[in-house]
Amino acid sequence: MPRYFGQAPHRHGSEPSAGVLLVNLGTPGGPDKRSVRRYLAQFLSDPRIVELPGKLWKPILHGVILRVRPARSAALYAKIWTPEGSPLQTGMATLSTRVQEALKVQRPGPIQVRYAMRYGEPAIGKVLREMAASGVRRLLVLPLFPQYSGTTTASVFDAVGAELSRWRWVPELRFVADYPTEVRYIEALARSVEAYWQRHGRAQRLLLSYHGIPEKYFRKGDPYFCQCQATARRLRERLDLSEDELIVSFQSRVGRQSWLKPYTEAVLQSLPGEGVRHVQVLCPGFSIDCLETLEEIALTNHARFLRAGGERFDYIPALNSGDDHVAALAELILRQGQGWAEFDPAWDAGRASAQQIASRARYEHVRGEPR
Ligand SMILES: C=CC1=C(C)c2cc3[nH]c(cc4nc(cc5[nH]c(cc1n2)c(C)c5CCC(=O)O)C(CCC(=O)O)=C4C)c(C)c3C=C
Ligand SMILES: [Fe+2]
Ligand SMILES: [Fe+2]
Q: Does the Cβ of 224 fall within 6 Å of ligand 1?
């Protein structure tokens, strides 16, 4: 792609401000074969997701996978699609609006909160250009993956970098890598479990099911597995559960190579044989409910557990746009933005900090430029 050092990601006359970009993985435009095919083609061509040489992978992807999987996945998406669209997309829209509101209450400064998807729409590049055009000069990128993985977090970083590499005037930039043991995130998870227990009682086991990655990526240094365990341990301690009562497993395996173990489906298959008739499942790695939770866990694995002799299976929803999640993210954002005037508790409209005066002075200089 030709480099384009585009001019005017700013507008003369608009005030500079700060922006927060929440990013999730992505979702197809519709639950039909064509949309899912387009989405999967983009997704599965990302070298962060599939680490095979293009020469080897391209024929498999186009010759086999994109002929079979789109129809299958589309049928699954159709089961969870709502009149408003994909749950992941509507969930991100609601969450970003609510985080924006929370920041307004805590901060009078101009902080714009937007969301984007790594694959599909709204695309990261497009949203970044819109933010710049409306005056955003300081950018905090927060991928909504609490546990870092090269396949997800780093891929978001690549997409942000690819977009900014074509800008003439890049913003000040901060990138949140992960938050697996962030106190308010753990607290939000714990409270959602406790609220569930209060309404429905406790199961014999709490199963934490995370999205898997190929085992090879873990052996090559991806910290994802360890961060999943770190979240699990903090949550187990906070809920005062024994090591037997809380189980960690990995779901959503694609392809034939070995992924992180134990596999969620294998665990659910074997629990009834060990006398566990009632299980509750939580997916702490999914910020928003999506295909992998609403279909794979709440429908497919639910049925699998009952077939294996289980009696009761409860899926505890993701944090979504609940108050505790919004508060946890708002706190994370304010802390990560420290030192930036818009995020600084000492900031007030009438008494700009030295830092802000400096940035305004730079801006005035630009405003005086001929167009
Ligand atoms: C093929 C390899 C894949 C890796 C590695 C992977 C890692 C990974 N994914 C998530 C979170 C999500 N995945 C979602 C969908 C999805 N994931 C894969 C494959 C890999 N993911 C595929 C092929 C799909 C598409 C659906 C399908 O055909 O099965 C989603 C979106 C779901 C939605 O509602 O749209 C999320 C979210 C994580 C956290 C992760 C590694 C840590
Ligand atoms: Fe995935
Ligand atoms: Fe000048």
A: yes
253 Cα to the center of ligand 2, angstroms: 8
Mean pLDDT of 275-295: 98
Q: How far is CA 180 from CA 225, 226, 273, in A?
A: 11, 10, 32
**What is the predicted pLDDT for the residue at 358?**
57
How far, in Å, is the centroid of ligand 2 from the Cα of 252? 7
The pLDDT score that the predictor gives to residue 353 is 54
Which atom in ligand 1 lies closest to the alpha carbon of residue 49? Answer: 5
Residue 350, H or E segment: none
Q: Is the CB of 151 under 6 A from ligand 1?
A: yes
Same structural domain, 33 and 145: yes
- Ligand 1 in contact with 315 (CB < 6 A)? no
Q: Of the bound ligands, which one is closest to the alpha carbon of residue 289?
A: 1
CB 139 within 8 A of CB 173: yes
Q: How many domains does the chain have?
A: 2
On whether both 283 and 353 belong to a single domain, the answer is no
Ligand nearest, relative to CA of residue 259: 1
C-alpha torsion 254→44→250→273, nearest 10: -20
Q: What is the domain range of residue 308?
A: 183-316
251 and 234 inside one domain? yes
Do 188 and 311 lie in one domain? The reply is yes
| 369 C-alpha to ligand 3 centroid (Å) | 6
| Residue 174 belongs to domain with CATH number | 3.40.50.1400
The long-range contacts involving 83-86, CB below 8 angstroms and separated by at least 24 positions, are 86/27, 86/28, 86/31, 86/290
Q: Is 325 annotated as a binding residue?
A: no
Instruction: Write the pLDDT tens digit of every residue in 53-102.
Output: 999 999 999 999 999 999 999 999 999 999 999 999 999 999 999 999 99
Is-above-0.80 flag for pTM?
Answer: yes
- Residue 268 CA to residue 260 CA, distance in Å, equals 16
Which-ligand-closest: CA of 364? 3
Q: Atom 10 in ligand 1: which residue has the minimum CA distance?
A: 211
